[in-house]
Write a structure and sequence with these properties.
- The chain is mainly β.
- It contains no helices and eleven strands.
- The radius of gyration is 15 Å and the shape is globular.
- The chain starts with 15 loop residues before the first strand and ends with a strand.
- The mean pLDDT is 85.
- Keywords: Metal-binding, Zinc.
- It comes from Nezara viridula (Southern green stink bug).
- This is SMP-30/Gluconolactonase/LRE-like region domain-containing protein.
Length: 141
Amino acid sequence: MSPKVEKLPIPSVVLGEGPHWDIATQSLYLIDISGSQLIRYDPQANKAFIVKLDVPLASFIIPVEGSKGQYVVGSGIKLYLIKWDGTSDKTESVELLHQLTNDSEANRINDGKCDNTGRLWFELGSPNYGLRKAILTYFLF
């Protein structure tokens, strides 16, 4: 039997990034960077849920282990704690966790993931994808 590839019912995004499978909710989370949207795809319901953020250039979403409806989101040079029920079109709250000291306005948080001990690893890089030389700095939170 060959694998089946199927299109998910996720609306088109401007710049999709940072897909994360959450075992606890059995859901796929991702970000639309340019559209500043969080997206949760529920395969059981075969439906996508979207919330627009009031923060620019969100780049990753990571569910907080043991805290239902809480997510760490990287955006610009900031880390936020977002409370969202995963279905509503509004967030419950957006709390600034940390702001990086940035020596260049050309930098922003890009990809981020947690390791098996819960530590968050992410990079700060140039949003100018036309650069010939990548400018990346890595962080642990």
